[in-house]
Write a structure and sequence with these properties.
- The structure is a homodimer of 519-residue chains.
- Chain A is α/β, with parallel strands linked by helices and 519 residues long.
- Chain A has helices spanning 43-61, 65-81, 83-94, 98-121, 171-179, 192-208, 225-232, 245-257, 278-297, 318-331, 340-352, 374-379, 400-409, 422-426, 429-438, and strands at residues 10-11, 14-15, 22-26, 33-39, 128-130, 144-150, 154-157, 183-186, 216-219, 238-242, 264-267, 273-276, 309-313, 335-336, 364-365, 368-373, 391-397, 413-419, 439-444, 483-489, 510-512, 515-517.
- In chain A, strand 7, helix 5 and strand 8 (183-186) form a beta-alpha-beta unit.
- In chain A, helix 2 packs antiparallel against helix 5 (171-179) and helix 2 packs across helix 6 (192-208).
- Chain A starts with 9 loop residues before the first strand and ends with a strand.
- The interface between A and B is large, with 80 and 80 residues.
């Protein structure tokens, strides 16, 4: 590894002190601490980062789409330069294989370039123009023009389970930068080394592109103190978070109690039900079982979209699918979870469900398949809870009609999945209608893990899957979270942003007098 | 008046009981109670309304744009049929002239028809399609499609100051219906009669259009009990509110503490600063003073967008403008405010600023102009507060550069207004940049009252002007508040909403593989 850790926070263009609380990463493979020792930011440093972000905001929010695109592409290039170090360190800090981080780095760079293209193309601002009618009676109609603008400094909390794609240079950061908002990242203390490398990539890009100091800061934090204070800081105008339900809700509560409440875009917990309909279960029991097994053990079961519930027809398919799942589970070897906390929680939750696991090296656990019936599931609230790690719950049902009531009872979810033949799906109209209310994304004859990064993706869903079901943290719509609307009435063309000027100098898609086009 | 009041709540298709607390409207002209006596909804009735709304939601959310458009237009027709009664009763309950309500009813019907057109045209759903690439390596790309869908039952709180346009059948209700969300209105107890007439219009439209029971309910309420319980009800998924800062924040706090927190779209308080730049002040002192006087006394100073602060150049223009404002104020006669509470608050706030008014008939007050300097303004937080009623504060400044710091100090506002010649405006670039962060709408050489209802309007702004600066309560973007995203992955065309089907059967504007068009 060529990267030399300084192990201190990034406070604008400077590095933090070594006076804060210290902590280290741990190797999930061995359970042992790995160096170096990292230094938490102090409250003074957090305040300085927030002030720098506020000062940077004016200049940053008025950068052109082209300038923001160059900056985002530069970050991607810097990450690629550091890819070998990122992959090595991320694997060390997470216990996940290096190949995974080859992919995750690629995905992250792709995401940065997607937002670069979005910023450069420019139509995302939803520019609207209603032209004046000075002769209108009884009152003349003014010229009114509006668009989305950057909201202000954003606090981003990193996920434990995606140390690159949902962390320092991940989707929240990329979408906030694309909007023109400064970002202060609260690093996850399970992967501080990976965070420092990614932060150095962003920091170099800030300097090379001549972006203002305060565009980016990164705060290390041994515990919750710094992050909580950051969300309460008056300069912060929105929060992006990926993590647990308890963590997300704690930040939502802090944000709601501020003198000026701010939105927290939290992506939290989801059990991602899979509904296997009768004909599909008969026809494809093996391939469904294999796909389901791959999906719920991907990333060792630590994906937000892990299918934690599988509804299988008791009169056909259930036995074959569960038997195959158990076989695959027996054949697989134990693998380490991300942190001791995640391992302890997994062991506790599976023991509540009657499963035990032998002590293992590091944070290793084995995958486990639970079984229940629709009746027991409905009467046991604990079975609705997310179990983070490689387990799923097979639930045998009788009639497809039962699934409608089951779906109505579910909490909000990121995803639901339906396996069915065309005939099955035609009979599931009511189920689909209910799922549209309950989830962000409905997957047909596939599996929910693997979230495509594209314009139409929705990685969101009703609470407690996320805090706002009208938004997404993956895909180009993610940029909308970090914006405010601004409107100009009878403004001279000279003071208008280019997006709203007469003649459409940027050539973006706009709505003009209700008509959408490039005029 | 031909309308016969039943004076009870609308609980779906039935009327509420007469067992709840009673209250009456008051005539602001006389200060005396006017009949009939209205009956608050009970908690049982509120629960019933919420359950009916939840039950109606599935069917309502899947109504076509054409069906929703017919429903919205039917409401407008019904309001027009009842216009004479609405105008008479609204004038009685508010002390505002009948002509005002001729206009406000027209505006409200226009708004309903605007949302009808929006729903029928259909492109508002932001449909996006990314087509599959089955040959992509290492993983095939799925077919992903997404759009906005109705969120669920919405609670709407009526404004005291716009008993038609921001009340029962106002913008919040119209935009929620256009999205496909049921609405439960909490009537304002200052204008229950106007509310009942408008509610009967909506109720008739629900029945005539065959919309499901629970599409609409209206709850009368003598105090805050019913409204608070409504916001806490698990079936409610969002809140629209127009009113005071204290009232909006109270609802935000209730919503944030729910097991499932929900968004409250509250439009609250704003002092709407006007900045008169030196050359404009010299050239147009009289017309600026006259426009400002009309604007701050419109609706007797009880508009959300009332200009409550006027920054005037001390070295030129200030004297002439203030002298003309005072002259206009002396020449005008006292007029009644909407409620005794608003009158008492106005008298209290102006007496804090050293003004007194003689006792008058009913809730009448006289307009008043206060004066201060930039220095005193900056050091006196009370001067930044909204005074609801016909008063404004003239503030003399020295250099235009001072205004930048003033603007930085301001709380979030609905609007800011700049009066300036082209030369003035060219010199105010920095001021405009700050105002873009602080306000929803910047008006040039006009006045902030009179909010045009159109696609590009932004009637929003940073807290405490509203609760979310990314949204608006006026204009077609208002529909977005009451939606969630839903995404379909590899769905058969048969189960997709028409908006996402191959071949674009509705002919709406969509984004397909990143390209915006009608394909």
């Amino acid at each position: 590894m060529s990267f030399e850790f300084k192990s201190t926070s990034f406070i604008g263009n400077s590095r933090g002190s070594e006076t804060g609380k210290t902590f280290t990463a741990f190797s999930p493979e061995t359970g042992e601490a790995v160096g170096p020792e990292f230094h938490s930011a102090t409250i003074v440093e957090m305040n300085r980062a927030a002030n720098l972000a506020e000062n940077a905001f004016g200049e940053l929010s008025r950068k052109s789409g082209k300038e923001k695109a160059e900056f985002l592409r530069r970050i991607a290039e810097k990450l690629e330069e550091k890819k070998a170090d990122i992959v090595e360190r991320a694997s060390l800090e997470t216990g996940l294989p290096k190949a995974r981080f080859e992919g995750e780095t690629g995905r992250t760079c792709g995401q940065l370039r997607m937002f670069a293209d979005l910023a450069q193309e420019g139509s995302w601002v939803d520019a609207r123009i209603d032209t004046a009618e000075t002769e209108r009676a009884p009152l003349p109609k003014p010229d009114v023009r509006s668009m989305k603008r950057a909201l202000g400094p954003v606090a981003v909390f990193c996920a434990s389970n995606f140390p690159i794609a949902f962390s320092v240079a991940g989707g929240d950061t990329a979408s906030a930068f694309a909007a023109g908002s400064p970002v202060i990242v609260n690093a996850h203390n399970a992967h501080p080394g990976t965070s420092e490398i990614a932060a150095s990539a962003i920091s170099e890009a800030v300097n090379e592109c001549g972006f203002p100091e305060g565009t980016f800061s990164l705060l290390f934090s041994a515990d919750y103190e710094i992050g909580s204070a950051l969300v309460a800081h008056p300069s912060i105008k929105a929060v992006g978070f990926t993590g647990s339900r308890a963590g997300g809700r704690a930040l939502m509560d802090i944000a709601a109690k501020r003198d000026e409440p701010i939105p927290v875009y939290a992506e939290m917990s989801s059990v991602n039900p899979v509904f296997v309909l009768p004909r599909a279960a008969e026809e494809k029991a093996d391939s469904i079982a294999e796909g389901l097994f791959s999906s719920f053990t991907l990333g060792y079961g630590q994906f937000c979209t892990k299918p934690g519930l599988a509804f299988l027809p008791g009169n056909g398919g259930y036995g074959a699918i569960v038997s195959r799942l158990n076989q695959l589970s027996r054949e697989s070897s134990g693998k380490p979870l991300l942190t001791s906390g995640i391992r302890n929680s997994f062991i506790e939750k599976i023991s509540e469900r009657g499963a035990a696991q032998a002590a293992a090296k590091g944070y290793a656990v084995e995958s486990v398949v639970f079984e229940t019936s629709v009746g027991e599931f409905r009467s046991t609230p604990e079975l609705h809870e997310e179990v983070f790690g490689p387990s799923t719950l097979a639930i045998s049902f009788g009639e497809v009609a039962e699934l409608v009531d089951i779906a109505e009872d579910l909490e909000g979810q990121l995803t639901a999945t339906i396996h069915g033949t065309d005939e099955d799906i035609a009979e599931a109209e009511e189920l689909i209608a209910v799922l549209e209310k309950k989830v962000g994304r409905i997957v047909f004859n596939g599996f929910p893990t693997g979230v495509e990064v594209c314009h139409s993706m929705v990685h969101g869903g009703p609470y407690p899957a996320t805090s706002f079901s009208g938004t997404t943290s993956v895909g180009t719509r993610a940029i909308e979270r970090f914006t405010k609307l601004v409107c100009f009435q009878d403004a001279p063309d000279s003071v208008l942003p280019d997006e709203l000027k007469d003649g459409n100098p940027l050539g973006i898609v706009r709505m003009k007098d209700g008509v959408i086009g490039r005029t």
